[in-house]
Amino acid sequence: MDHVQLFTDTSLACSKLITGRYSTSFTLGIRTLDERLHLPVYAVYGFVRWADEIVDTFHEHDKAALLADFRRQTYEALDAGLSFNPVLHAFQAVVRRYGIDREFIEAFLHSMALDLEDQSYHPDLYNEYIYGSAEVVGLMCLRIFCDGDAALFERLREPARRLGAAFQKVNFLRDIRSDYEDRGRVYFPGVVYSRFNDATKGEIEADIKADFEAAYAGIQQLPRSAKLGVYLAYVYYLKLFYKIKKLPAARILGERVRVPDNTKLLLLLGSYFRYRLSRI
């Protein structure tokens, strides 16, 4: 038995377990990808989730020190091709296999560091944060989906960024109350929480709608191995966006909008039939 491969396979299995425990929706999306893409995407999610846990969960610890140590371990793993942190070992293996850009990793870790500070997000910082926290995650996955096809990657780079931005902005809108009450954050530039109203909400939604429209053209060009999984994530977030859009600003500040599990199943079935009929 090749024990090095066993170690890597076990590390990848740890990232799969993390994904399943933390996100049933993301797990469902991954399962609709071609099977050979499952473990690499789990590895990306495991890395992202662990960093996010540092900044959002361990309030009784020095989160800046924890994140700095995580960053150090990440680059040591990338340089050595080995880590005894299974999440980082799985991630470095996927980074090396698919040529994931270190710039994406650095941008992501930078955005995580921004979450450790009380920020007033002016437009440039807002765009910088979204790029690092969401767009580059989509670009990491796109490297996996394109599997060495550099021309395809470049063609789909911008739509992938717009899809990541749409997802993140929907999250910001859905979680505007909890982000403010639990973390003291309002991500949208120029938005004062106490004065959040329907007009402000409408401006944000117009921006999100443009991102979704730009992203769909890219989904149509994805390799068939990735198309259904990405499209399912797209329709799920689009459904969530439309639910939020129908509600007045006061309702968004009073409740967390979600898509019920039975609706998710219907979205999966509808997406599958569109995929089979080549209507995506």
From TrEMBL:
It comes from Hymenobacter properus. The keyword Transferase applies. This is Phytoene/squalene synthase family protein. One of its GO terms (biological process) is carotenoid biosynthetic process. InterPro entries: Isoprenoid_synthase_dom_sf (IPR008949), Squ/phyt_synthse (IPR002060), Squalene/phytoene_synthase_CS (IPR019845), Trans_IPPS_bact-type (IPR044843), Trans_IPPS_HH (IPR033904). Keywords: Transferase. GO terms for molecular function: geranylgeranyl diphosphate synthase activity; squalene synthase [NAD(P)H] activity. Pfam families: SQS_PSY. The keyword Transmembrane does not apply.
